[in-house]
Amino acid sequence: MPGNMVDFFLLERLAEGNGDRTAILTEEESWTYGQLAALTCDYIDRLAAVAPGERVVMAMADGPDYAAALLGIIAKGAVAVMVNPEMTPAHLSAIFDSASAPCALVDERFRPLIEGALAHGRSATAIVGVTRSEPFRALQIPETYPSKPDDPALWLFSGGTTGLPKIVVQRHASFVNTTRRYAQDTMRFSPDDVTLAVPRLFFGYATGSALLFPFSVGAATVLFDEPPTPAAVVERIRRHRPTILVTTPSAINAMVALDSVSKADLASLRFATSAGEALPESLYQRWMTRFGVELLDGLGTAEMWHIFITNRLGEATPGTVGKAVEGFTVAARDEEGNGVPTGETGLLWVKGESAALGYWEQPELTARVFRDDWVVSGDLISIDERGVVTHRGRADDAFKVKGKWLRPVEVESCLLEHPAVAEAAVIVVEDQNGLVKPVAFVVKKDEVTEDDLRQHVLAQLEAYKHPRRIFFVDSFPLTHLGKVDRAALKQLANG
Hints:
Blueprint: H1 5-15, E1 22-25, E2 30-32, H2 33-46, E3 55-59, H3 64-75, E4 79-82, H4 89-99, E5 103-107, H5 111-119, E6 126-130, E7 152-157, E8 167-171, H6 172-186, E9 194-197, H7 204-217, E10 220-222, H8 230-240, E11 244-247, H9 249-257, H10 259-262, E12 271-274, H11 281-291, E13 295-300, E14 307-310, E15 323-324, E16 329-333, E17 346-351, E18 358-359, H12 363-369, E19 370-371, E20 374-383, E21 389-394, E22 399-401, E23 404-406, H13 408-416, E24 421-430, E25 436-444, H14 450-458, E26 469-472, H15 486-494
């Protein structure tokens, strides 16, 4: 296995004689692998003062510069810290303080946000301004630092829906392993593929599916930095004819909800992937009815970097996340670590060669989650007799009502089956007596009353699961990874 992952994802393409193959497509131009390599060299030069092992923060828009900066940082043996530039100042400040990075690569449009975050912390990070680069003509081959497979390469942030994100320190070897196991062996990425991603590149799901996976086989990726609205996505599909669409349930819901988008020609796609949140079966069926493009739901975590359970082409089971990717072992266990019976819900345990080194400066949490060869996730799953996995929500989102467990995803899926509901989120609040009660937040697409929706849930689920209150909102607050911010919803419910 290569030491420095840049050898695997870029230098091997040059060694194969693929320097003239298209690597990146943008609105204005295309970039070859040779031009990407030259721009990577340019970023290595810009970071001359950065030593191996030091962190470099990236607050950049999607595009060729993002790809080259990421590869350049890692080629130097440094550690890339990809952030959402529009995170809260408190989150950004905490990340900068933890990273103690000598510098940050910052697009000029994000400079005020980053300067504000630095002003509220104790970090002495210097800002290196970034503007859009033009393609280079002369081929330059980056020189990579002789990293070891277990050396840190990237900081990822847990996708939790409450509180400050945990910092996950991922290794060079993890990226190579998952790319081989999931992207190449399972999803069959090929040199003829063109990927298009809805989530932004700072999200590890997109970093893999929209950069590293296509780069590993000499394929191309479509990058754009405007908001990924349904109309923007459909326009890029029309223009670039991608073969793989990388998306999320929220984006899928938005696409099937618009009549103008639902008539779009998606015939170039051989499949789409979904991850990041649970994909309700009803939403899967609406997608298939509208577009007919196979939609493959999967499950991954920052602790294992990317997807390690997935549905496969021709074998998708709606409402599930499929089976474990070869090379990964998954199990459902109780709180004591004992296996639960087939079909029953338990905590997700996973092992494979993509486990992170642990959490940055959190040894106790690292010891609880990383146990020998296993990673103990906060996800709840069940596994049937065929090995098909169903995601049952997050353990920290589940709660007891009248002594019985309630998983928000079950109630959310039920609400989404109502024709007037566009989006739904369920949380728990305490009443004046200190008893927990489920409440729901709903984005409507047609007129509907609170009582209509309550009766809809009561007709399908056990009575204790129905939401005691339903709040109608125009949109949901989101976390740094674009997931529903349940902590913010709880504040609204208690407000």
